[in-house]
Amino acid sequence: MNLLFKDFLKLKPSNRDWRIAALAGICVGSPLLIGWYFDQLSSGLISCLSALVILYLPARGSLTHKINTLMICSFGFMGSFALGQFFSFNPIAAVLSFGIFSLVLHAIILHYKAEPPRSFFFIMIFSISISQPFSLENLPHKIGLISLGTLLSTAIGLTYILYKRSKAEPEPSQSLKSKDPDSTADIWEAIIMGLFMALSLGLGYALKINNPYWIPISCAAVMQGASLNHIWQRSLQRIFGTLLGLGLCWLLLSSTQSKLLLCLYIIALQFIVEMLVTRNYALAVIFITPLAIFMSEAADPIINNPATLIALRFNEIVLGSLLGALGGWLLHKEKLRYFALKKLG
Q1: What pTM did the predictor assign?
Q2: 166-213 per-position pLDDT tens digit
Q3: Which range of residues forms the domain containing residue 44?
Q4: What gap in Å lies between CA 238 and CA 218, rounded to an integer?
Q5: How many Cβ atoms are within 10 Å of 189's Cβ, its own excluded?
Q6: d(CA 34, CA 30)
Q7: Where are the transmembrane segments (predicted)?
Q8: Secondary structure (DSSP) of 314-335
Q9: How many CB atoms sit inside 10 A of residue 13's CB?
Q10: What is the DSSP code string of 133-168?
């Protein structure tokens, strides 16, 4: 147990450019403030959610590679939201489609050796979308808002890339990752990911939770762990970090009901999270929790009742984290079994 908690307050060294954190804050904050200014905060929140595509901006590679990556991820965000809305008409269809979507998406991510955040934000957008009321007539409007958020982030990202090129700043050397031609382990990992994403959403429906997306989001976050110890550590960190984060969320919500201040909180929290997430996940979770709640609930009347909101979200996050730990254990067990059999063969 001491091994799990000894690094809670330790900041790991990171070579991540601090300007990426500032860039994320700008990309998320721009549509949010525009939505607040025109009294369309709910629309601004949808756009700022898709503005997170900036986090997929590669740290290395050519200009074409970086822009292509942002554009492909942008279309992926739009497709994730559209598919989620389309299959939200029925809980059974939602669970099945979510599982299949997560399986296929994770298989693609594994095939191309994508770097973090990998499949996480695609899954997050799909789960949030599929938890919203089914309404095909509103779908074009929402897809338009998603498109605007990704377009704005891509434009800001391009400006940042051109700025770096004009300053002739050196980039990290690009290390090519070898791909194992036998993809059996990847296939099993994708299947397990799809299964647990379906289970997590199904659990939310079975418990009759109004916004069941918190369970799959927490489950997916924990299952991103690279090793068995990392998975259990991340699960515990997420649960205890969530406790502190919910306390921070309650404090911030209790101190103000200003929509503008909530928008500024989101921008500041996004910056802090991006500065911490690669250095200490436990500390980052403390700020991820209020950030995620504000981004998904700021336009909901429940935001005015902090105690009720926090009680609901804590239960869902804990359930998702525990399910993610179980899924991560099974995932790691299958990897060990596969590589052991491969060596014996």
Answers
A1: 0.87
A2: 876 666 544 444 445 456 778 888 899 999 999 999 999 999 988 789
A3: 15-170+184-344
A4: 8
A5: 22
A6: 6
A7: 20-38, 44-63, 93-112, 119-136, 142-163, 184-207, 213-232, 244-268, 280-298, 310-331
A8: HHHHHHHHHHHHHHHHHHHHHH
A9: 6
A10: PP-GGGHHHHHHHHHHHHHHHHHHHHHHHHHHHHTT
Residue 144 covered by a domain = yes
Tokens of 54: 């900036």
Q: In the chain, how many domains are there?
A: 1
* Least-confidence region, from 58-62, 168-172, 285-289: 168-172
Say if 19 falls within a structural domain: yes
In a domain, residue 177? The reply is: no
Burial class of residue 182 (count of CB atoms within 10 Å of its CB; 0-12, 13-18, 19+): exposed
Query: Environment class of residue 194 by beta-carbon count within 10 Å: exposed (0-12), middle (13-18) or buried (19+)?
Result: buried
3-state SS assignment for residue 305: coil
Determine the 3-state secondary structure of 68 from DSSP: helix
In tens, the pLDDT along 89-146 reads 999 999 999 999 999 999 998 888 888 888 899 999 999 999 888 888 899 999 999 9
Mean of all residue pLDDT scores within the chain: 83
Phi, psi of 132 (to 5 degrees): -85, 155
Please name the residue that has the structure tokens 């404090």.
251
Distance CA 242, CA 265 (A): 17
Domain annotation covers residue 7: no
